[in-house]
Amino acid sequence: MGLAKTEMFTDEQNKISLFAKVFGHPARVAILQHLFKIDACICGDLVNEIGLAQPTISQHLKELKNLGLIKGNVEGTSVCYCIDKDNWSSMKDIMLKFLDQDIPNTNCC
Fold first, then answer.
1. How many Å apart are CA 90 and CA 66, to the nearest integer?
2. 60, exposed or middle or buried, with CB in 10 Å at 0-12, 13-18, 19+?
3. pLDDT digits (tens, 9 = 90+) for 74-88
4. Could you tell me which of 108, 91, 103 has the C-alpha nearest to residue 17?
5. pTM of structure
6. Assuming Cys at both sites, which of 2, 52, 60, 90 could form a disulfide with 56, CB separation 3.0 to 4.6 Å?
7. CA 101, CA 109: separation in Å to the nearest integer?
8. Residue range 82-108: average pLDDT?
9. Phi and psi for 79 in degrees, rounded to 5?
10. Is the pLDDT of residue 61 over 60?
């Protein structure tokens, strides 16, 4: 069996790729924006806020949680989510370093 293609790349390259993927869907961006706006854990229903079906919201929350950008606790039948501040800061550092690269002043193309 061959190497997984992701093993060909650095940890940082793989992280940047995963962050880009999570921001690649507007529902996940909307969920993150809402969590920042309320500046608290949300235990309520995101369906009314985001406008998608509950299973769809749950799938997006799972993606955000798997990457570590949000964290959640199960309390009975409800799950509370909030931004994971440490992981958010780490992600920002990695992405800012990547996005802050300057294009050399060369005559290319």
1. 15
2. buried
3. 666 677 899 999 999
4. 91
5. 0.84
6. 52
7. 19
8. 91
9. -120, 130
10. yes
Taking alpha carbons only, the member of 88, 54, 56 closest to residue 70 is 88
* Nearest by Cα to 73 from 59, 56, 87, 61: 61
Q: Which pLDDT score, from 0 to 100, does residue 77 have?
A: 62
pLDDT score, position 47: 85
Q: Given the structure tokens 């931004």, which residue do they identify?
A: 83
Contacts of 9 (CB under 8 A, 6+ apart): 17
**81 near 63, Cβ under 8 Å?**
no
Cα–Cα distance for residue pair 74/92, rounded to 1 Å: 27
Whole-number Cα distances in Å, 72 to 43, 96, 100: 9, 26, 31
104 or 12: which carries more pLDDT confidence? 12
| Residue 98 or 5, more confident | 98
